[in-house]
Amino acid sequence: MKKLKLSLATLLVALIATSAHAQLTVNLLLPSQSGPHNGTVFYDATLTNSGGGALDITGSSFTILGAPAGLNLDDSPLFSNFPTTFAVGDSFTGTLFNLFIGDAATIPAGTYFGDFTVETTAGNTTQNWQLTVVSASSAPEPASVALLLLGTLVIVRRRQRSVGKDRSERALQDQAGA
């Protein structure tokens, strides 16, 4: 009976030691990004099991500081882009989460901060992120600029024709008067 207890205790310690060594590292490729109103920003990451045992992704959680209404985080890419089980040494890169930026009425331009946590059977790993919401540029769209240039060219061409026509008429009048 004593041997059985000792064997079970040894097995339990071995199992705890193995799961304690499993570790998922999360490396956001661009933790600080910017995006316009009504846009989406994609946060890509590399997830690596750098521990001594396999681990499973069990969930995620996140915090958006100040919780502005116009900023929404979508964590579904974690579950669609990465495997749920990581063997020792496994590493995968892909989109980890998306941030949807609302219109200027729901979120003012500025810098926002938060964190994203990947929950695993071996513990949780958290990464901080930063987002700068930029206002729409006051510069006109390229199509508007092209249309403006085309209109200007048409006006210039018409003026050239009318000036040329006036000169031709004067030359004919001068010839008729001579």
List strands and helices in order, with pairings:
Blueprint: H1 2-21, E1 24-28, E2 32-36, E3 40-49, E4 55-64, E5 71-74, H2 76-81, E6 85-86, E7 91-101, E8 110-120, E9 123-134, H3 142-177
Parallel strand pairs: 2-9
Antiparallel strand pairs: 1-3, 3-7, 4-6, 4-8, 5-7, 8-9
Please give a structural write-up.
The structure is a single chain. With 178 residues, the protein is of the alpha+beta class. 35% of the residues lie in helices and 39% in strands. The strands form two sheets. A five-stranded mixed β-sheet has the order 2-9-8-4-6, with no helix packed on it. It has a four-stranded antiparallel β-sheet with strand order 1-3-7-5.
